[in-house]
Design brief:
Elements: E1 2-6, H1 19-33, E2 37-41, H2 45-48, H3 54-65, E3 77-81, E4 98-102, H4 108-115, H5 119-132, E5 136-138, H6 141-147, E6 176-179, H7 184-187, H8 189-195, E7 203-206, H9 211-220, E8 227-231, H10 235-244, E9 247-250, H11 259-266, E10 271-273, H12 292-304, H13 306-320, H14 325-336
Parallel strand pairs: 1-2, 1-3, 3-4, 4-5, 6-7, 6-9, 7-8, 9-10
Helix pairs in contact: 1-14, 4-5, 8-12, 11-13
Length: about 350
């Protein structure tokens, strides 16, 4: 098969660099290994330099200008990673080749918080696109049921299962970890900081974004004695943090999946997660933790009970073993119209 993948995001994107980019990169490498052609159109570094929103407009403009390129007709499948914040026009002649990847659906309230006066337009675009393209792929089971389409979750790096976890340092200290983009609205960082007003344990916040904004929010809540904001960290340091933390906290308001959640569990760490990451986490109880009070209660429990944190972390690791990049690739090939496990290497 010859596949064109279209998404604003990519590895190293200055404004996103999310789990979707990791997913696409893993899929691309495996599809190419199997002999398929997999081209990826994303916002270029020069476009990204224009700024968070101008870069999206620049990418949209480029894709619009190139919409009549005859080379587009050579693709068997157009894998379109839709975002209401960066919609791409697909020519009518190619729409029957489109497979739409849906990460999450935004309600009008969340869009107002995100884009203000443009919320209604983004909301309309979201539902217009859903009706325009019948072939869809969701990441989570919940989203798959909602849209009546296959749910194909991302995989996880297999070597994370080999990491030997720690839950308390030699000096008997411990910390909780938030790892992800510093997007206050999407990731619920305001909820996390509100929760930490009643938690004595250290909280490390690591990720790409506006560090000064998060530090300001922490200072306003008088949390600077126990909340450390680090910004982005390299992969080896990220893995070391996952190895040593007591637990990972993910209070997201919405998520497509939550790759960090599965990575943490592969490292044998439990995840205190919201409803948005329910499908990506081992259930530590019958409920999810969506409010500051609920997050605070769980953090205090596991701060006091290392044994329980260890037990649930190890159970989470076993649960996470069902996710793999190869399995995801097989399912994506089938969704694209090929045969799972097919190898199209040319002699």
């Amino acid at each position: 098969m010859k596949i064109l993948h279209i998404s604003y995001d990519s590895l190293g994107n200055l404004w996103v660099n999310g789990g979707g980019a990791k997913r696409t990169d893993e899929l691309r490498s495996r599809m190419i290994e199997r002999g398929h052609v997999f081209d990826w159109q994303y916002a270029s570094p020069d476009e990204q330099k224009k700024g968070k929103w101008w870069s999206r407009l620049a990418f949209m403009r480029r894709m619009w200008v190139n919409r009549n390129d005859p080379a587009l007709d050579e693709y068997d499948v157009i894998s379109y990673e839709f975002s209401p914040f960066c919609p791409i026009w697909i020519p009518r002649r190619l729409r029957d080749r489109v497979v739409l990847s849906i990460y999450h659906l935004h309600d009008l309230k969340s869009l107002v918080r995100k884009v203000g006066p443009f919320a209604l337009g983004c909301w309309w675009l979201q539902w217009r696109v859903l009706h325009k393209y019948p072939r869809k792929i969701a990441l989570s089971t919940t989203m798959g049921h909602l849209l009546n389409c296959p749910a194909i979750p991302p995989g996880v790096d297999g070597d994370l299962f080999e990491i030997e976890p720690e839950y308390t340092a030699a000096d008997q200290s411990h910390f909780f970890l938030y790892l992800g983009r510093l997007d206050v609205e999407m990731k619920g960082i305001d909820l996390l900081l509100d929760a930490w007003k009643g938690v004595d344990s250290p909280l490390w916040i690591c990720g790409r974004g506006d560090v000064d904004e998060i530090e300001g929010m922490s200072k306003a809540r008088n949390l600077t004695d126990r909340v450390v904001v680090m910004g982005p960290v390299p992969e080896d340091q990220k893995r070391d943090m996952l190895r040593r933390c007591r637990a990972v906290v993910m209070p997201s308001r919405y998520e497509g999946w939550g790759i960090v959640a599965v990575e943490a569990q592969a490292c044998a760490k439990l995840v205190i997660g919201s409803e948005a990451v329910r499908d990506a986490t081992y259930r530590i109880s019958d409920q999810t933790f969506n409010t500051p009070e609920e997050i605070q209660r769980q953090a205090c429990i596991f701060a006091e009970d290392e044994t329980r944190a260890r037990e649930l972390g190890l159970a989470s690791r076993e649960w996470a073993r069902k996710f793999s990049w190869d399995s995801m690739t097989d399912q994506m090939v089938e969704a694209f119209g090929g045969q799972p496990g097919s190898d199209m290497r040319r002699p």
